[in-house]
Amino acid sequence: MAIDHRHVGETSELRTVVVEEGFLRLFAKAVGESRPIYTEIAVARAAGLRGLLAPPTYLFSLHLSAPAAQGDVFDPHGMAVDPSRTLHGEQSFEAFEPIYSGDTLMLRTVTTDIVSKKGGALEMITQHTEAFNADGALCGRMATTMVVRNG
Amino acid sequence: MADLPGTSDWIVGLEMPEFIRGPITRRDLALFAGGSHDHVAFHIDSDAAKAAGFDDVIAHGMLCMAYLGQALTHWVDQDRLLAWNARFVSMTPLYATINCRGSVLAITEDATAKVARLSIVAWAGPDRQALVGEALVRLG
């Protein structure tokens, strides 16, 4: 089922996500991370950090944890992409300010491109997400291209 | 850990210390699904993987990207990692061992910053690239 290209330019609401310590610790466990700034809050704080440091791919997980009401690729009333037909195509991150457990961030996602390939058998959706911290500063930006297999 | 040049001593061609994870197990995928909020079924449920056309569950691309991120932050402090990217060029099967490698392609310096551009690759086997990308690291 082809994705309507009218979704290009669609911008999500600014949605709130809290960076939770427990999920950061589970993420660390899952990837075999044992360094204390990523896993032990007392050590992180003693080192002058305000919480556990979110590792370099974590903005993607924060985005997944806070799906947008507007413009989410899986929204059945929107692009209605079937997760079982998706593959991750490309991913990029820009880091401006560190993200820590306990932070409250605001995320905004824009669909920047939808491209059909192979006569519609594949579609590639690109979205850019920005994260702002409680000071209003841009702390991270990412671009995600998902490949949808229609064939 | 062998002596590594400080970031002031980097040169083109300098190689990132190799970083190895795996073999990736079903347990790894289950924990990563939970910890990363990616609950897509074909990463954790063999029935769903087969229904989606795979032989068995496949690893999240972002699990391999997390390993690449670890490789980078073992080499330089995370606050030096300005930007990085990856293309997912092949799917990562269950039981894969991931070898993360990188090398310095270029070093540029202007009035505000000295930055190294790295080539980075996550290999899932001797002939199979899973992720290919680049990273920008602030040297000074």
Characterize the structure shown.
The complex is a heterodimer of chains A (151) and B (140). Chain A is α+β, with helices and mostly antiparallel strands. Chain A is built from four helices and five strands, in the order βααααββββ. The N and C termini of chain A lie close together (9 Å). The mean pLDDT of chain A is 96. Chain B is of the alpha+beta class and 140 residues long. Chain B is 23% helix and 31% strand. Chain B contains three helices and five strands. In chain B, strands 1-3-4-5-2 form a five-stranded antiparallel sheet, with helices on one face. In chain B, strand 3 and strand 4 (114-123) form a beta hairpin. The two termini of chain B are 23 Å apart. The A-B interface holds A 23, 26-33, 53, 55-57, 60-61, 64-65, 83-95, 98, 143 and B 21, 28, 31-32, 34-38, 40-42, 48, 51-52, 60-63, 65-67, 69-70, 72-73, 78-79, 81-88, 91, 133.
Number of helices of chain B: 3
Instruction: State the low-pLDDT regions of chain B, or none.
Output: none
Tell me how many strands of chain A there are.
5
Question: Which ranges of chain A are low-confidence, i.e. pLDDT below 50, for 5 or more consecutive residues?
Answer: none
Q: Taking all residues together, what is the mean pLDDT of chain B?
A: 95
